TrEMBL record:
Signal peptide stretch: none
Source organism per UniProt: Paenibacillus borealis
Key words of the record: Repeat, Transferase
The keyword Repeat appears for this protein: yes
InterPro entries found in the cross-reference section: Hexapep, Hexapep_transf_CS, Trans_hexapeptide_repeat, Trimer_LpxA-like_sf
The name this protein goes by in its record: Acetyltransferase
Gene3D superfamilies cross-referenced by the UniProt entry: Hexapeptide repeat proteins (2.160.10.10)
SUPFAM superfamilies the record matches: Trimeric LpxA-like enzymes
């Protein structure tokens, strides 16, 4: 019996070639993607996703880490730490990259702002044309509205939007969010996931979540 799409295929639905499971793209250094996370893009090249990870240089060591079951819309851009300029001088202008002797003021890595890894949790929905700045953490279950610029961390199960992105509302009560963080349905095996699909898409109350915790 089928209990879901093949998570190891690039196209989970062969009839929809605009949606791919990006974990199954050719691997890139310092990019980690969870199972079932998809990217939607109207281009005919699924690797177009990588073109939206900007200023990501392996020697800096920062990672883009995206969890499981995320929905990433077309045009989402991740700005990585390589975009940063030195800011402790009188100017932020990057003289060193233009040569002609200016490379004598090439900064060391510890002189550059470094915000750390960019981490997207599980079950995160990111709308079209969103920009995510370096070192941001977006919590599980969050929703980012289209055309937003995310400059600060986003709490789990929050809806944010705007430029800069601000909290619109929380999706659930704090107690329900706490229970969901313990249930972690994205870590279920494919059989348990299939068994509880109706619950996941329709919502449940605190008692049902408590029962799910007891199942484990």
């Amino acid at each position: 019996m089928m209990v879901g799409p093949d998570k190891n295929k690039l196209y989970p639905n062969e009839n929809i070639k605009t949606v791919c499971y990006i974990r199954n793209l050719p691997a890139r250094a310092n990019v980690e993607i969870g199972d079932y996370t998809y990217y939607s893009d109207n281009s005919d090249n699924p690797e177009h996703f990588y073109e939206h990870i900007l200023h990501h240089y392996e020697f800096l060591g920062d990672k883009l880490i995206i969890g499981k079951f995320c929905a990433i819309a077309e045009g989402v851009t991740f700005i990585m730490n390589g975009a940063n300029h030195r800011m402790d001088g009188l100017t932020s202008y990057p003289f060193n990259i233009f040569g002609g002797g200016w490379e004598k003021v090439t900064p060391t890595l510890d002189q550059l702002p470094f915000k750390g890894n960019t981490v997207i949790g599980n079950d995160v929905w990111i709308g079209q044309q969103v920009t995510i700045m370096p070192g941001i953490t977006i919590g599980d279950g969050a929703i980012i509205a289209s055309n937003s610029t995310v400059t600060k961390n986003v709490e789990p199960y929050s809806i944010v939007g705007g430029n800069p992105a601000r909290l619109i509302r929380k999706r659930f009560s704090d107690k329900l969010i706490g229970l969901l963080s313990k249930v972690q349905w994205w870590n279920w095996d494919e059989h348990k996931l299939f068994q509880h699909l109706e619950l996941l898409v329709s919502g449940c109350d605190e008692e049902e979540l408590q029962r799910l915790l007891q199942e484990d």
